[in-house]
Amino acid sequence: MQDALNEQVNAEMWSAYLYLSMAMHFEAEGYAGIANWYKVQWQEELAHAEILRNWINSRGGRVSLKAIDAVPQTWATPLDAFNDTLAHEQKVTGLINKLYALAEEEKDYATRGRLDWFVNEQVEEEENCHKLIDRLKLVGNDGMGLYYVDQELGARTYTVPSPLAAN
Ligand code: MG
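Above: the input record for the complex with magnesium ion. Below: its predicted structure, written as tokens.
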């Protein structure tokens, strides 16, 4: 279970790195709002890794930090980036589900309980992506539409996730 949790710490750090790369790409491309949205996403992924590290430590385990693989650097359009984001989050949902199944198999019900938060978080992540993809499909290549989407995403702010806020 500890090895699998450490793998997930690495996966969350890779997610953070991916979203930071997207933020840097959109900042360079002049989409300040989309860049802001991805920076918030980056902070959330760092928090996911922290929640898992705290959990490993609180159970008397040992955190093991592994190398973070390189991430893509450019996306042709905002829609491409959000499609990639959804596909990535669906992959992460699969990883969380596997962790959950392992916790059940090993009768580690405490870890299973901690993972409940992640299961719910993934539902939210996927829903957010679906909504943004729908909106970007609606505006297509319309500059004014993209301008408004960018403005809207610029308003997103980071909220500390409840498992960290409670500490
Ligand atoms: Mg995550």
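Notes for the reader.
Residues 101 and 107 are 10 Å apart (CA to CA).
The mean pLDDT is 97.
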